[in-house]
Amino acid sequence: MRYGVTAVYSLAAACALISTGCTAHHPSAAPAPASGHPRPQTTGRAALESEAQRTVQIELADDGRFHPAEVGVRAGEIVTFELTNHGRQEHEFTVGDLNAQELHEYQMATMNMAGMHHGDMSHLGKDHEKYMEGLAKRTAELDRVAGANASVHVPPGETRRLTWAFTSQELPVFGCHLPGHWAAGMKGTFVHA
Ligand SMILES: [Cu+2]
To answer: How far is the CA of 19 from the centre of ligand 1 (A)?
Structure first.
């Protein structure tokens, strides 16, 4: 598990980020209901493949990188991404602004924590409780500001497609949020072509 150590670092980093980011007062630690409101389409929107003007191939690999990691696009164009996973691990491809990426990362982390700590969590103590509270708060904050996103899981050896409409001058980024992957740098950028 080459991402094992990184995953721990990632959680520690998230914890540090949350504890500094959550010193302000918030009325409630409860996460906002997911997708209770339409997300602002600040960097575009998911689109139908039939709308796409071209296809861009991106390879996902176990080196924790996208190939290519930089893709040129024109504002207004609709692109289908053909994503092939050449690795032995599951990867994913998420398009969205940085808030959307962070939200997705925390939602995955929350799911992982829940999966890891089934049953009695009392032995984990106050620090863990605080960490989970911070995670919930930050997730709720991000849920209010994150823009539209689209995501697809790509199992090892398989190809998936995702279509995105770049409706804005502001460009999204892309990344993989399998545990530890984003923190280890499995991300990419769009640039104006
Ligand atoms: Cu990945």
So the answer is: 26
Q: Ligand 1 center to residue 159 CA distance, Å?
A: 14
Share of the chain above pLDDT 70, in %: 77
pLDDT at 111: 82
CATH code matching the domain that covers 4-21+46-192, chosen among 1.10.3080.10, 2.60.40.420, 3.40.640.10, 3.90.1150.10: 2.60.40.420
Asked if 100 contacts 39 with a C-beta cutoff of 8 angstroms, the reply is yes
**Residues within 5 A (CB) of ion ligand 1:** 91, 176, 178, 181, 186
What pLDDT was estimated at residue 72? 98
The model's confidence at residue 45, banded by pLDDT at 50, 70 and 90, is very high
Among 138, 95, 135, CA closest to 112: 135
Q: How many helices (H) and strands (E) does the chain have?
A: 3, 10
Please tell me the distance from the alpha carbon of residue 155 to that of residue 160, in angstroms, as a whole number.
9
Per domain, the residue ranges of the chain are 4-21+46-192
